[in-house]
Amino acid sequence: MTLVPAAAAIAVGYGLAALAVFGGARGWRPRLLAAFATGALAFPVTVFLAGQIQTVLSSAFGWGPDAIAMTLGAGVAAALVTAAVNEAVKLAAALLTWTPSRGGTVAFGAAAGAGFAAVGAYEVIHFALMMRALPISSASGFVGSLVQQLAFVAVNSASTALAAFGVMRHRAAAYLSAAILLQTVFAVFGLLYALRAYSNVAWTILDVVVAAALVAGALILDRRPAADSVLARAA
């Protein structure tokens, strides 16, 4: 039981760190914290919805019980479904707490994504802490799990920020599709590790590289002036 608060503290810490990166000094405003909480509440909803869709797909295509976890084709399809459900629900959670008077949607998207991912990261971190107590555990494996979950939180925060940026720039479909594609690729990294395509270290490195690139890209987009503002200044 003592592992529960420790895992929760680490997961929430990851989420709040992502909120601070995207929200800056605004990160602790009640509206952004509400977006964080709404995103966290959305996590079990996405698990249920994605699970139901995957069940339908498994029945339609005759996939066995282990196909999604151990077969490349089924695994990629399931990753795409999960990414689509996750991004749509996270974006909805961000928009529920956003109003035009509160500024751009990017920080709200990042907050909702961070809260969402903190809940998912908690489960894995809790398991990693339990495994750490076993003789078969290794320090590298334990640290790798913690780093992977930090990357998971960063990617989810940044991808929802990206989708929210699309809403703000009236290109929601394009940016949401990009967020779904990036999330699918991120999930496939884990599938390839399960299929023994590479080591846990390689998986961790891939996660960190993609997370860093996505966070950097979302921050750059957020700080780029809108086209109409640029034209107004040029005039």
Radius of gyration: 18 Å
Helix content: over 70%
Overall structural class, as computed from helix and strand content, comes to mainly alpha
Give the low-confidence spans: 227-235
What is the approximate shape? globular
**How many helical stretches?**
9
How much strand?
under 5%
In sequence order, what are the helices and strands, one letter per element? HHHHHHHHH
How far from one another are the termini? 63 Å
**Average pLDDT value?**
89
Number of domain units: 1
What's the main sheet like? Answer: none
Number of strands: 0
Explain what you see.
With 235 residues, this protein is mostly helical. It has one domain. The protein has nine helices and no strands. The protein has helices at 3-23, 30-61, 67-70, 72-97, 106-132, 139-168, 172-194, 200-223, 227-234. Helix 6 packs antiparallel against helix 7 and helix 6 runs parallel beside helix 8 (200-223). The longest helix is centred in the first third of the chain and has 32 residues, at 30-61.
Topology of this structure?
Layout: H1 3-23, H2 30-61, H3 67-70, H4 72-97, H5 106-132, H6 139-168, H7 172-194, H8 200-223, H9 227-234
In short:
The chain is mostly helical.
Keywords for this entry:
single chain, 235 residues, mainly alpha, 9 helices, globular, disordered C terminus
